[in-house]
Amino acid sequence: MKVSKEQALKFYETMCLIREFETSVKHDFLNGEIPGFVHLYIGEEAVATGICAALDDTDYIESTHRGHGHCIAKGADIDRMMAEIFGKKTGLCKGKGGSMHIADFSVGMLGANGVVGGGYNLAAGAALANKMILKNDRVSVVFFGDGASNRGTFHEAANVSSAWKLPTIFVNEMNQWASTTPYETTTAVKDISDRAKGYHMPAVIADGKNVFEVYAAAVEAVERARAGEGPTFIECKTFRVEGHFVGDPELYRTREYVKENAALNDPLTWFDRTMTRKNGYIDGVIEPQELEAVRAAAKEKIVKAKEFAMSSEYPDPDQYTADLYL
Amino acid sequence: MRKLSFSMATCEAMAEEMALDDKIFVMGEDLARQGGIFGQFKGLPEKFPGRVIDTPISETFIIGGGVGAALAGARPVVDMHFADFIGVCMDEIFNQMAKVRYMFGGQAKVPLVLRAPDGMTIQGAAQHSQAVEAWFCHIPGIQVVAPSNPEDAKAVLKAAIRSDNPVIYFENKILYKETAMVPEIADEVPYTIGKAKVRREGKDVTIVSYSIGMKNALGAAERLAKEGIEAEVIDLISLSPWDKEAVLTSVKKTHRLCIAHEAVKQGGFGAEIAATVAEEAIEYLDAPILRYGAPFCPIPFAPTLEKMVRVFPEDLVKGIKGMFE
Amino acid sequence: MSIKSYREATFDAMKEEMIRDGTVYAIAEDINGNGGTHGRYTGLGEAIGDPGRVIDAPISEAIIVGSAVGAAMSGLRPIVDLRFSNCIPCAMDEIVNQAAKSRYMFGGQAKVPMVIRAPDGILKMQGAHHTDCLEAWFTHVPGLQVVVPSTPAEGKGLLKTAIRNDNPVLFFEHKKLMAMTGEVPEEDYTIPFGKARVVREGRDVSVIVYGIMVSRALEAAEKLAAEGIDAEIIDLRTLSPWDREAVLASVKKTGRAVVAHEAVRQSGFGAEISATIAEEAFGALKAPVIRIGAPFVPIPMAPNLEDLCRVLPENIYEGVHRALGRQSDR
């Protein structure tokens, strides 16, 4: 599928924003500036970018503990994202949620979920509401990892979405690691998308480092969903570059293994390499300096976001009971 | 006013609210084709086509999907079949339904009602007889109600549906068949979640209960009256939030407190009531606080054994009389 | 005696029991990859000479707990680790309807000797899905036992009892315990359930606590002692069964009670303790029964708001002053 050069550069900008955001957060976490838990999306940027580019602001996404990439790709305010990670009152969730519970409802980002597998049924429920009650053509995307596909909740949401042709899109970020367990040790199927067959759900496998391939799969899935044809399973083959969480000693895999697989799967270097030569995704090429400019601008945005977070205050103490009951 | 069963009163509440707001819908197992296993959804599928949905056997979807639907702008009423199965979707309630609004800094609201038939029937045995309301009173972010009669059943369900907070509505299975005079919509008195009702005034002892426990409370009060002891009986109706002021006011008047519920005594909601009075009004008490609940064992099947885990009015009468010796 | 961390002491408990009894095994997510929760299973398989008894599970709490129930009924003795108490709801039915009831419902034909370990509590900014204390729920479920250790030595002895015990046990361990060090006996020892320990004797007030709150109560007691207030501290150790006799005897001696836990106050286990005191030691009470727990909110992430949800020595100190009928200096 071909896109315009502008669209391609937009993809690149989103991926760079995610990469720079995560790199900054990693640095700050290791410096002791961010406590709690942080789970990085480095290496998987093309998945969130490609999928979210096919959605409108009024479409929904359900995210995971590894949710910064989804949030950025869906269009959340980056300054307020950063403030939330630092627990500041200017954060998207007013400092109540933090990294694992980041949300921006104004752009349809229904929240990162701290419970692995907690998001499927929420997405399917939103899909049900939109199709059967509110009667609009919004779609619901649920992101989940290979490990999360082992939870019973996956099967329940897949079943109900297929049985009722709900506009749910199941996006499996097959990053090969469920915390410390390589997926093949706890999963019988090699391609998680094989499971879709059991629910009579069409499935497609996309190269997770190729943002255009991911985007094309998403566009088709969204079309099907809006037309009332039901759910689609999109398996994006990718690789989790960092440990499960920042600070993970990663005793379960070697540095060499990580370096090799990170290089093989990196969506940004793939983009750099591919776009600067003749390719089948856009007409013409993108010059290296254009790419550098986008990267530099993204970095600048993240620096500003950090400044915003640092200069923001913590919530007022009496706010701790706020936003509970209506 | 006309005579209605508890079950029909809930149907009426649903029908009235669903007519007012087409974002309200119902989902759960065995609702559309059967009208609910206790008939508590009878007539609704016909009145509101497409808005009463039979789900697969999938409690995580019934509740989790309900939360998602609420986030998308609908107003779901989801049905649990039996409160005993609530463990299957505990994460959906505890980590999702209760916390989504707070964790996301108020960006979301979850106007969802979870209806859960609970309590003992006749020989329902260990996995179909439980009363588990205490767990949910320990969870910030949700509200818990448990009406005891048809009139309240209707008013409380309407309040729960109109609330923008997630509410768990425990409805005792035995109470479904109970009948009473229930107001028509014209002279309806709306219920405010968190308010208790004084069902019987008295000066000698305060008996606090809710849901099916009210039968024991009122039954005991009747028997005690014959012996010259006037009990004030408070029906909590709401458990989280609960009407602490009503209980404290009563206790300050009567100086004696007895709490009763069907659920297991240890760790039951009665403990919260007793502990609150022990902290905020103990100087008004002339006798120890009495607390009645099921003994610490699962519910056995055989009728001779099942009887041993029930609470009876005689238990309360005996204990309360002892307060005066 | 030797000085050990809580992690080491409980590792020793598991190792010793798994060597003693070949039917004991451990199952959890990431148990081999990075040694499981806080790395506390690192080297366990090698230490017992049987790595096959330390099993990595998929992300499926329902399977981890459910399969353990089945395994227990088939003659094994599983140790299940759920990593965070917040993961427990994903297996609530398996715990409440299966583990708790199978022995009773089947008229004694089955037994379910299993231990579910779950770290809980507030550390720092882990957010609303990773910080809750849920022990109260399980004290309300007949058929389960609930254990809440407070020190390395207590952890070791209680864990050994839990493993040898033929009942399903919920073993809640506050995250802050992991790094705690203390003296641990060298010899093989167990600590019985249902027997509290008097950590500090006193005449003026009974402070009834468990888990991480024991060390915080001790800190409060020191400050109170400097003011001439003599606090008796009781570590409940187990909540179901719990040592009502010890608590009632203490309250009958001091006439005042303060109950404290980190879990949400409303319908927390403190309510059961307070209610029991008001029911069975009413005549001895000289003051209201003070009950301290977290406020009625999920745990927020911002550190200053999170701090408002903690229950700390100063809260216990103030509680004692309220029980004594006076305002504290704070």
Rg of chain B, rounded, reads 20 Å
Number of domains of chain B: 2
CATH architecture of the largest domain in chain B: 3-Layer(aba) Sandwich
CATH superfamily of the largest domain in chain C: Thiamin diphosphate (ThDP)-binding fold, Pyr/PP domains
Largest interface: B-C, 53 and 56 residues
Helix/strand/pairing category of chain B? alpha/beta
- The rough form of chain B would be described as globular
Give me the number of helical elements of chain B. Answer: 12
Number of strands of chain B: 14
Helical proportion of chain B?
25-40%
Strand proportion of chain C: 15-25%
Taken as a percent bin, the fraction of beta residues of chain B is 15-25%
What is the CATH class name of the largest domain in chain C?
Alpha Beta
Distance between the termini of chain C: 40 Å
List the helices and strands and how they pair.
The complex is a heterotrimer of chains A (about 325), B (about 325) and C (about 325).
Chain A: H1 5-30, H2 45-53, E1 60-63, H3 68-73, H4 78-85, E2 109-112, H5 120-133, E3 140-145, H6 152-163, E4 168-174, E5 177-178, E6 181-182, H7 194-197, E7 203-207, H8 211-226, E8 232-237, H9 255-265, H10 267-275, H11 288-311
Parallel strand pairs in A: 1-2, 1-3, 3-4, 4-8, 7-8
Antiparallel strand pairs in A: 5-6
Chain B: E1 2-5, H1 6-20, E2 24-28, H2 44-47, E3 52-54, H3 59-71, E4 75-79, H4 90-97, H5 100-103, E5 113-118, H6 133-137, E6 143-145, H7 150-162, E7 167-172, E8 179-182, E9 197-200, E10 205-209, H8 213-226, E11 231-235, E12 238-240, H9 244-254, E13 257-264, H10 269-280, E14 290-294, H11 303-306, H12 313-322
Parallel strand pairs in B: 2-3, 2-4, 4-5, 5-7, 6-7, 10-11, 10-13, 13-14
Antiparallel strand pairs in B: 1-8, 6-12, 9-11
Helix pairs in contact in B: 1-7, 3-4, 8-12, 9-10
Chain C: E1 2-5, H1 6-20, E2 24-28, H2 44-47, E3 54-56, H3 61-73, E4 77-81, H4 92-99, H5 102-105, E5 115-120, H6 135-139, E6 145-147, H7 152-164, E7 169-174, E8 181-184, E9 197-200, E10 205-209, H8 213-226, E11 231-235, E12 238-240, H9 244-254, E13 257-264, H10 269-280, E14 290-294, H11 303-307, H12 313-323
Parallel strand pairs in C: 2-3, 2-4, 4-5, 5-7, 6-7, 10-11, 10-13, 13-14
Antiparallel strand pairs in C: 1-8, 6-12, 9-11
Protein name (chain B): Alpha-ketoacid dehydrogenase subunit beta
Cofactor (chain B): thiamine diphosphate
InterPro entries (chain B): THDP-binding, Transketo_C/PFOR_II, Transketolase-like_Pyr-bd, Transketolase_C
